[in-house]
Each structure stands twice: as C-alpha cells, then as structure tokens.
Amino acid sequence: MSTERDNPNNSTRGSLRLAPSVEELEEHKRKLPRQFVNFTFYRVRPEWRLLDEAEKSLCKEGFVRAIDEFRRALLIHTYSDGRTSH
Q1: In the chain, pLDDT over 90 holds for what percent of residues?
Q2: CA angle at residue 72 from 33 to 41, to 5 degrees?
Q3: Is the confidence at residue 85, as pLDDT, over 80?
C-alpha cells in the first residue's frame, strides 16, 4: 500500500508506504548477482626495515608490479591504517 503510487503528482510529505514482505525481500535477494569478497592483509617483515632505501625501493616497485598484473581481473583496493610500527 502506498499513497505515493495512488497520487504520483502529490507533493505532500509524509506519505504512507509499507515495508516489503519477507517473501518480496527474499525474491529480490534471489535476483541479485552473488559476490564473493576476500580480504588479504600484508605486513612487512622486520628484516625488510633493515634494508637500505635503494633496496626497499626495488622491493616496493616489485610489489606494485605484482599487484598491477591482477588489477584488470580483480577489484583491488589498498588500505593503510597510517600506523608505522618499528
């Protein structure tokens, strides 16, 4: 039941609209495509922090190249909590 459907040109606020039934929600869910989400978290090893800046830079570039190889096939988002632990 919806007064908005009955009067689509009605510009008054506070129209009554009932929530869909459980059956309607389940039917809607069945029509949606399924998605699988996987999270992977990486942390650098303490030994890496001891490398000189040039070696760290090479490692970072290699990591970026590895991620970029899969970027077109996967939805990849990076995340950092901003903390640095030593």
Answers
A1: 22
A2: 80
A3: no
Task: Rounding to the nearest 10 degrees, give the CA dihedral for residues 27, 28, 31, 32.
Answer: -140
Report DSSP state, residue 33: P
Contact (Cβ atoms closer than 8 angstroms) between residue 24 and residue 12? no
Q: pLDDT per residue over 24-78, tens digit each?
A: 888 888 888 888 888 888 888 999 999 999 999 999 999 889 888 988 888 887 7
φ, ψ of residue 2 in degrees (nearest 5): -155, 125
Structure tokens, 23: 């059956």
**End-to-end Cα distance, the chain:** 61
How buried is 18 (Cβ within 10 angstroms: 0-12 exposed, 13-18 middle, 19+ buried)?
exposed
pLDDT at 15 over 60: yes
